[in-house]
Amino acid sequence: MTNSIISLKHIDYSYEDKTVLQDVNLELERGVFMGMVGPNGGGKTTLIKIMLGILKPDNGSVSLFGKPMDRFKDWTKIGFVSQKSNSFNKGFPATVREVVSMGLAAKVGYLKFFNKHHKEKVMHAIRQVGMEDYADASIGNLSGGQQQRVFIARALVNDPELLILDEPTVGVDYQNVRRFYDLLHQLNQNDQITLLLVTHDTGAMTEHATDIVCLNKELHFHGEPEKYTSLTEADLSRIYGHPVHVVKHDH
Amino acid sequence: MLADLLAFDFLRHTFITGLLIGFIGPLLGAFIVVRRLSLIADALSHVTLAGIAFGLLLEKRFAIFILPPFYGGMAFSVIGALLIEKLRSLYHSYQEIGIPIILSGGVGLSVIFISLANGFNNDLFNYLFGSVSAVSRNDLLTITGITMIVTIIIILFYKEFMALSFDEEHATISGIHAKAIHFMFIVLTALVIAASIRIVGVLLVSALMTLPVAAAMRLTKGFKQTIIVSIIFGEIAVIIGLITGYYFSIPPGGTIVMVSIIILLLSILKKSKTTGHNGGVQHGYE
Questions:
Q1: Could you tell me if the ipTM is greater than 0.90?
Q2: Residue B154 touches partner A, C-beta closer than 8 Å
Q3: B171 domain residue, yes or no
Q4: Listed ranges A2-6, A15-19, B15-19, B71-75; the one with the highest mean pLDDT
Q5: Is the CB of A93 less than 8 angstroms away from the CB of B175?
Q6: Distance from CA of A103 to the nearest CA of B (A)
Q7: Long-range pairs for B75-78: beta carbons < 8 A, 24 or more residues apart
C-alpha cells in the first residue's frame, strides 16, 4: 500500500506544437497540504486536468490512490473546486442546499433518490463551511466568497480524501481569503483531507501549506515552505523565466 | 366552454392535451432555460414542421399514409435533436452553432416540401399556430404516452439533469455520464415539442417552454420551486389561452403565448415591487 494519493511519472503535454509540460514527476503524499505556484501559462491547470483525467498526457503515467488512471473508478474520493466556480451561471435558480446536493448526485447513483441520510450529509457539509444560515438562499444572491464556500461544500459532501482547488480565491475579497485559508487549514488538520491548492498567492501559501511545488513547464521546486521562502531572487527568476523581485510580507 | 367540453369529444381531447403540455412544456423548459438553450426549442420546432410538411406531402401527392404528419414531425424532431447534439460535440467551443444550422435546415426543408405539396392549406395553418380542433383521439393517446415517458425520466434522472445543467464540468468529473444524459434530454425535448405543436403550433411552441420559466425564475429561490411555479404558470396560460381562443375563434397558440407574456410582465412588476420594499438588497437575476 503506497502512501501516494497521486503519482505522476514523466508527464509530457503539449497543445498543438506548444509544449506546456515536460517530464513532470510528482508524488502527492496522503495528509499533506500542497500548494502549487508558478507563472501564468506554466501548466498548472493543465496538470490538474491531467490528474483528473480530463486531459490525456502525451507521455507518462498517472496513478490515483495506487491505481493507474484507466483503472481508477472511485472519483468521489476526489473533490474538485475549479477556477470556473467563479464564472458559473449566476442566474441559475438553485438554493445552497440544492447546489451542495449536486455534489452527491454521482455517488448516490443512477435511478436512486436522495434519502434522509443524504440530506443530512448535505447539511453537514454546509455547516463545515459555515454557511448554515444561508442553506435556503439562492446561490446567485451570495457574495463571491460565500459562493466559494458553497462550492467547497459541494466537494466535501462526498467525504473526499483529496481536495483539489484551482485558483479558488480569484475574485474573493481579502477578508474572505483569510477565512478561506483558515477553513482549508481546518479541513487538513481536523478532517485529515489531503489538499492540493493551485494559487498565485505565494504569500498565503508559504504560511499555510506543508509542501510547495513550483511549476513552469517543468517542476522546478518541491519542498517545504521554509525552503521556498529562502530561495533567492536569482532562483525565482530562473523558475519564472523573467526577473523576480521578492516582496517581504510581514504577517 | 364547460357545456361544450362535455358535448364535444374533440374539445375534451384538446383540453386534456392542453393540460398535459402545460405540464411537460415548462417541466422540461426549466432545464432548457437554465442551460441557456432556449433557442433549441425553436430550432427543433422548425424541424418538426419539416416532418409535418413531409407527411402532408406524402398524403397529398402520393396518397401514402405510412407517416401521418404528427408522427413525421416527431421523427424529424428527434433526428434534428440528435444532429444538434452531434454538432455540439463537433464545435466544442461554439456549442450553440447547431441551433441556427438545424433551424434554417428545418425551414428550408419545410419550404421545399410545402411547395411540392402544392402550397399552404388549412391543415398547415393549424400546425403553424395551433388549433382547438386538431387533436384526434390517437393524438391524445400518443401525447399522454409522451407525458408519462417525460415525467418518469425526469423524476428518475432529476439529480443528474440538475447537476449537468448547473455545472457540466463538475458533474462530468464527479462521474456522471454527460453524453448519455444529454442525449436522453434532447430526445425528450424533441418529443415534448412534437406533442405541443398540435395546440400551440410550430411558431410558438418554444414560448410555452420558456416564458413560464422566465416568469417563475424571478419569483423563486430554488430549482425545484422554479419548476413547480413554472408548471403552475404554464397551466394557467394554457387554460385561459384555450378558453379565450375557443370563444374568439383565434388559434390557441396566440392566446396561450399572450397570457404567458402577461404572467411574465406581472412577475417582473411584482419582483421590482418587492425589491423596492427590501431596500434593493437583492442582486436579481440579470
A1: no
A2: no
A3: no
A4: B15-19
A5: no
A6: 8
A7: B75/B51, B76/B47, B76/B48, B76/B50, B76/B51, B76/B52, B76/B106, B77/B44, B77/B45, B77/B47, B77/B48, B77/B51, B77/B190, B77/B191, B77/B193, B77/B194, B78/B187, B78/B190, B78/B191
